[in-house]
Amino acid sequence: QLQASGGGLVQAGGSLRLSCATSGRTFSSYDMGWFRQAPGKEREVVATVNWSGGTAYADSVKGRFTISRDNAKNTVYLQMNSLKPEDTAVYYCAAQAPRSRRYDIWGQGTLVTVSS
Questions:
Q1: Residue 12 CA to its chain's centroid (Å)
Q2: 20-64: per-residue pLDDT in tens?
Q3: What is the DSSP letter of 28?
Q4: DSSP, res 87
């Protein structure tokens, strides 16, 4: 129901745009998020966008990443600029249903590798 894409190999300072296509239900009322997990580290939240368009970011990506959603296209995006080697991770998109207290719908990850 969530399909992430757009990962790849990029040099430090470069940009990538991740996409998360949703299907199977109407996600316009869901909060959506991007998470990442680097090798040997725990999964962490990168950015979230709520059902009304409000956004929040991890301090480590503020000013560099932008999350957005296009409900007409059933897609959530993560624009990543000024990438750093420490951004290397598997990125996951996830959805939180209305009245849910956690993100409980997850897509498969997409690997982002930033070379120095």
A1: 19
A2: 999 887 888 999 999 999 999 999 999 999 999 999 999 999 999
A3: T
A4: G
